């Protein structure tokens, strides 16, 4: 009689074994190892794209300034706020070769002597 009660008690036990839990932890670890580098690449690519878009916006502002005045701007204040709302900053996460100097050069249109005042 006691053995019958023990079998019934064992059949009613619910839960996960240690092996099942370990398999789940390993699978989550593998998925994390795949997802983190992908996420980092996506954020870096987005920051680089934002940087490149900022350069194109500055180039457009320079062209509008040149069309209106028939001269290139000599300082940032020539462009802000009339031709561009605010001077951009390099997005966080942009790769190392993208700097504030890119904005001052604006793809070769502005002189490197252009300064923020």
Explain this structure.
The chain has one domain (18-108). The radius of gyration is 30 Å and the shape is rod-shaped. It is 58% helix and 0% strand. It has helices spanning 2-11, 18-69, 100-105.
List the helices and strands and how they pair.
Blueprint: H1 2-11, H2 18-69, H3 100-105
Give a summary of the structure in a few sentences:
This protein is an all-alpha fold and 117 residues long. It is 58% helix and 0% strand.
Which percent range fits the helix content?
55-70%
SS field, number of helical segments: 3
First-residue to last-residue Cα separation? 93 Å
The whole-angstrom Rg is: 30 Å
Write down the secondary-structure element order.
Answer: HHH
Index terms:
117 residues; mainly alpha; 58% helix; disordered C terminus
């Amino acid at each position: 009689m006691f053995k019958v009660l023990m079998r019934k008690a064992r059949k009613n036990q619910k839960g996960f074994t240690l092996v099942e839990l370990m398999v789940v932890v390993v699978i989550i670890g593998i998925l994390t190892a795949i997802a983190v580098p992908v996420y980092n690449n996506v954020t870096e690519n987005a920051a680089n794209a934002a940087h490149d878009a900022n350069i194109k916006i500055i180039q457009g502002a320079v062209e509008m300034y040149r069309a209106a005045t028939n001269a290139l701007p000599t300082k940032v204040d020539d462009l802000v706020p009339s031709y561009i709302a605010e001077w951009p900053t390099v997005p966080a996460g942009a790769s190392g070769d993208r700097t504030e100097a890119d904005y001052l050069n604006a793809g070769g249109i502005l002189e490197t002597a252009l300064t923020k005042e």
